[in-house]
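Q: My labmate handed me this sequence with no annotations at all. I'd like to see what the chain might look like in three dimensions before we decide whether it's worth expressing. Could you predict it?
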Amino acid sequence: MGPAGSSEGRQILASLDSRTHERPECALTAERVLELLAALASLGVRATVDGGWGVDALLGRQTRHHEDLDLVVALGDVERICAALEQSGFAVSENYLPVRFVLRNAAGEQLDFHTVRFDEQGGGVQPQPGGGSFRYPPEGFVRGVIGGNAVSCISAQVQILCHLGYEPTPKDAQDVLELCRAFRLPTPVAYEPFTPAIPKQRR
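A: Here is what I predict for the chain of 203 residues:
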């Protein structure tokens, strides 16, 4: 019997469903993120935290409000992820497979799944909408902390790389600058306008 059919797996998914409706606000707390990760783990799904919560996992603290949870998962796990989480009130709201898909529930919680095919080296290859692909390198899968618990997340270097090539939002800028400061990485040119000006010293 697989993880999804085990008594432990059923209990976790049932708990996930019962707690969903206790949060009318559209926010994903650290506690909720850990519940969702536990539910996916009970299915045998390898889920790596990306996006805003991935940044906070790297920093080991929550820096801002989060309306969604970005996760990198294997393309081959999509069917069982959807089947299990639909039983917990989630439904597919956006389908851009094999690139990504989004699940939402009535409480407004959003799960944004980035789908990859893992290669022999441990990298994750994600097709891109315009053709080609993006590869999460093996060293890009690291460990972070959410709510005092260790989680799998995307590295600072790869996070910053994924924030390039488009017009950044204030949230993007906050995430990138936090990572640059914490990991002593150079600020990308596109994010320099968001860097606080350093007052000139008086002579």
